[in-house]
Design brief:
mainly beta; UDP N-Acetylglucosamine Acyltransferase, domain 1; nine-stranded mixed beta sheet; six-stranded parallel beta sheet; 2 helices; about 30% strand; globular
Length: about 190
């Protein structure tokens, strides 16, 4: 392998614009679409992922296939993004202005989203704009995240609701007392 190939392992079918900043040892699967974004060292990006301008992905992340990371999203280090996760950056999307003209960047307000270090977002989740997912938090598959998720919390459902702290749920059982105490303390 050449030095360039070792630095960035990308399929020939990956669409990577010249303005993309890739860290060392980034692995890109086939059919990714990247433009104007930044991706940190040792991050893996699955097939059919789009990462838009001004999105930032940290080091040692895994972005699974069919996910969409739009402008205004910051994903810190060591974050897991499951298959088909969708981020949203416009609370009131429209194709045209009130006068019928196509919208431009001046006609809408981008709202930023942050996913803190070590968080995990399950497959099929939708993350609304303007939220922060806390460090080490776990978002269940299929969840609709419409408000901030505390660090170390587990959320799931439509809308995503607090289920407890990471560590209180798992291995086939749930400590109901820990979940109730966590829910009261963080409400």
């Amino acid at each position: 392998m050449s030095a360039a190939t070792e630095q960035r392992q990308a399929s020939q079918c990956a669409c990577v614009a010249d303005d993309v900043r890739l860290g060392e040892r980034v692995r890109l699967a086939s059919y990714v679409n990247l433009y104007g974004c930044e991706i940190g060292d040792d991050t893996r990006v699955g097939a059919f992922v789009e990462i838009q301008r001004d999105a930032k992905i940290g080091r040692r992340c895994k972005i699974s296939s069919h996910s969409f990371v739009c402008s205004g999203v910051t994903i810190e280090d060591e974050v897991f993004i499951g298959h088909g996760v969708i981020f949203i950056n416009d609370r009131y999307p429209r194709a045209t202005t009130a006068g019928g003209a196509p919208q431009t960047e001046n006609d809408w307000k981008m709202e930023h989203t942050v996913v803190r270090k070590g968080a995990s977002i399950g497959s099929g989740a939708i993350v609304m704009c303007g939220v922060e997912i806390g460090e080490g938090a776990l978002v269940g598959a299929g969840a609709m995240v419409v408000r901030d998720v505390p660090a170390g919390a587990i959320v799931a459902g439509h809308p995503a609701r607090l289920r407890g702290p990471v560590g209180a749920i798992g291995k086939g059982h749930q400590d109901e007392n820990k979940v109730r105490r966590f829910g009261r303390a963080k409400s």
